[in-house]
């Protein structure tokens, strides 16, 4: 029974990781498809695209290099936290009702919590690898 519960948890975390990667890639694709008018928009789009693709790659590398996965989870959490603060500030300055602000930022708050879970999973995997590492032979 416990093995089944652990399998469900592991499957859920794998689906969460791939869902987060797909979400980041979708954001990058959406921003890239919006088009750009001048050189300044092009630079911002390229920077955002590199940040999104880099974060997705780091999240994916968790399976081979948990340390890079932990860094990717931290970067993703930071991106979602910045998004929450930025959107909240913009909408508060426009005097939008709090209930509407909450509806706009709740997704990013939940994604922030999800990236914390993925970061913890990568850190746990780093510890597991260190504990199960064979002793050096002299």
TrEMBL record:
Transmembrane segments: 14-30, 42-61, 68-89, 101-120
Record key words, sorted: Membrane, Transmembrane, Transmembrane helix
Domain of life per record: Bacteria
Protein name: Uncharacterized protein
Organism: Belliella alkalica
């Amino acid at each position: 029974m416990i093995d089944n519960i652990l399998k469900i948890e592991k499957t859920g975390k794998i689906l969460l990781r791939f869902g987060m990667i797909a979400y980041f890639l979708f954001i990058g694709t959406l921003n890239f498809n919006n088009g750009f008018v001048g050189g300044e928009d092009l630079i911002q789009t390229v920077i955002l695209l590199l940040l999104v693709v880099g974060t997705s790659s780091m999240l994916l590398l968790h399976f081979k290099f948990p340390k890079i996965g932990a860094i990717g989870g931290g970067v993703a959490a930071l991106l979602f936290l910045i998004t929450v603060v930025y959107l909240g500030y913009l909408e508060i300055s426009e005097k939008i009702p709090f209930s509407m602000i909450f509806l706009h930022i709740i997704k990013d708050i939940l994604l922030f919590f999800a990236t914390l879970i993925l970061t913890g999973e990568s850190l746990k995997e780093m510890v597991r690898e260190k504990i199960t590492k064979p002793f050096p032979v002299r």
